[in-house]
Design brief:
Layout lengths: L5 H11 L5 E6 L6 H8 L5 E5 L5 H16 L12 H11 L5 E6 L1 H7 L3 H11 L6 E7 L2 H14 L5 E5 L5 H4 L8 H11 L3 H4 L8 H9 L5 H13 L3 H12 L5 H8 L4 H10 L3 E4 L14 E4 L2 H10 L3 H5 L3 H9 L3 H22 L9 E6 L4 E7 L3 E8 L7 H14 L7 E8 L5 H9 L3 E5 H5 L2
Parallel strand pairs: 1-4, 1-5, 2-3, 3-4, 10-11, 11-12
Antiparallel strand pairs: 6-7, 8-9, 9-10
Length: about 475
């Protein structure tokens, strides 16, 4: 099932309609849906779609030759092999002289690894002739750092900087919820906090069975994609995966400061592994939103970006032996179910952040948000701080099963005094986001004052 990706398809279609040669690179983590996006894009277009599998240079050239011959030439040339990569690009450029031709080389880093000279060859052919053709060449890959290097080499080697790049992000909550439309609002939040926004992971959900049954059947089940995929990806992409596992286990258990991670893992060089995980977009280092020089801040905290990855390291890996021995139901009942709401609180906060960006950029907030982030000191945390040109809105995101009352507002106002020095000349407003609604006293107070906004779960989750 292909879902959404409206803006990405629009970007690709704009490139297609440009009536000039275009070189486009697409990167993103494994399972995020790059191949599905590109397949959807080229459905109704004359196109060559080639997956660069692992293999030698000659095997890849033979395989690509066969694909090109099937699309461009008669059946009597089906087994002909282009002698060089120059010949490959020359044939593509020749075809694209008279008509629009889309060529997609998926998992392009595999070809670069097998034949590093492909980059200078492509640059030479592009600058000589392909730039004057009607070719749309798309290079995609999951090896993020390598795709960044490839993109940089292409941008540096093409004088008019015609190479464009896009990083494909996981689905937002609004997109992810399309995979479980039958769930009630609270379970939609829990499902997003569990499965995250990776399309391949979301696609295994059966929307007609409960979230608990889905977790049992698709995650706590030996041999399923979600049970094994994290191990597979880490073993494929990283050397010494055990060190990365130790770090992610520490972060998933709440050790988010560098010193805490070092102590939990025993890795003095933990910062090197943390840098690699950031480059792979698996974790992020966040700093208080009010910091004026974020790159120099020593107050950074490390968070796992992908919700499913956080779930896997929090619940699956620590109990993998029990699951392997057939005690999945026990893990669900004793470990996951009692903790799922505490675990989902961070997912709810992420959904609230997405919501405020949405209403802010669409003009439904009272001011335009320039930045949205967290604030904390050694004792206190403000879940979200929305900064505008003249306004700052301090937000509590509460995933409690009890309505929140005026005591929460009093506490948020106390925290406002602590952060006020960093928000000079800004009007300070307050907002409460609640899973379980608000007390009558807080609702009445919000009606009396003009600097308090209350956001219920149905309001935040309204499509």
């Amino acid at each position: 099932m292909f879902v959404n990706r409206i803006s990405e398809l629009a970007l690709l279609n704009n490139l297609y309609r440009s009536c000039k040669a275009e070189l486009f690179t697409l990167s993103g983590r494994q399972r995020v849906g790059k191949t599905e996006l590109l397949s959807e894009f080229c459905k109704d277009k004359k196109s060559i779609f080639f997956l660069c599998n692992l293999g030698s240079e000659i095997l890849l050239r033979k395989s690509l030759s066969s694909t090109i011959n099937q699309v461009l030439f008669d059946s009597d040339r089906i087994h002909a092999v282009f002698n060089t990569w120059d010949d490959v690009f020359q044939a593509l450029g020749k075809t694209a002289e008279g008509e629009r031709l889309v060529v997609i080389l998926d998992e392009f880093p595999n070809l670069v690894s097998a034949h590093p000279a492909i980059i200078p060859t492509l640059l030479n052919m592009w600058n000589q002739s392909l730039q004057n053709s009607n070719l749309l060449l798309i290079l995609s890959g999951s090896e993020i750092s390598m795709m960044e290097t490839i993109t940089h080499q292409l941008q540096m080697g093409i004088p008019d900087n015609r190479t464009k790049h896009h990083f494909l992000e996981p689905f937002s909550f609004e997109q992810a919820r399309l995979f479980f439309p039958n769930y009630d609002e609270q379970d939609q939040v829990r499902a997003y906090a569990t499965y995250g926004g990776t399309p391949a992971y979301l696609s295994v959900i059966d929307p007609h069975t409960s979230l608990q049954e889905n977790i049992l059947n698709t995650i706590l089940n030996r041999g399923t994609l979600l049970f094994d995929d994290v191990l597979f990806i880490f073993q494929q992409e990283l050397r010494e995966p055990r060190h990365y596992f130790a770090i992610l286990l520490a972060i998933a258990s709440g050790k988010t400061r560098l010193n805490e991670i070092k102590q939990a893992t025993g890795l003095e060089g933990a910062h090197v592994y943390l840098d690699t995980l950031q480059q792979l977009h698996l974790i992020e280092r966040i700093i208080p939103v009010t910091e004026s020089q974020p790159h120099k801040s020593r107050r950074g905290l490390y968070h796992i970006k992908d919700h499913y990855l956080r779930f896997w390291f929090r619940f699956v890996l620590p109990h993998r032996s029990l699951i392997e021995r057939g005690f999945s139901q026990l893990v669900l009942e004793k470990q996951i179910t009692p903790e799922i709401d505490h675990f989902s609180a961070l997912g709810f906060e992420d959904i609230c952040r997405q919501y405020f960006w949405d209403i802010g950029l669409s003009g439904r907030l009272s001011f335009y948000p320039e930045t949205i982030g967290k604030w904390w000191n050694n004792q206190d945390v403000i879940d979200l701080v929305i900064l505008g040109d003249q306004t700052a809105e301090l937000v509590e995101c509460n995933w409690s099963n009890q309505p929140i009352g005026t005591n929460h507002l009093v506490d948020l106002e106390r925290k406002a005094e602590l952060v006020k020095a960093d928000l000079t000349a800004l009007e300070i407003r307050f907002a409460m986001c609640s899973r379980s609604g608000f007390t009558r006293q807080l609702v009445d107070l919000a009606h009396q004052r003009n600097n308090i906004n209350l956001y219920s779960l149905p309001m935040i989750l309204k499509p």
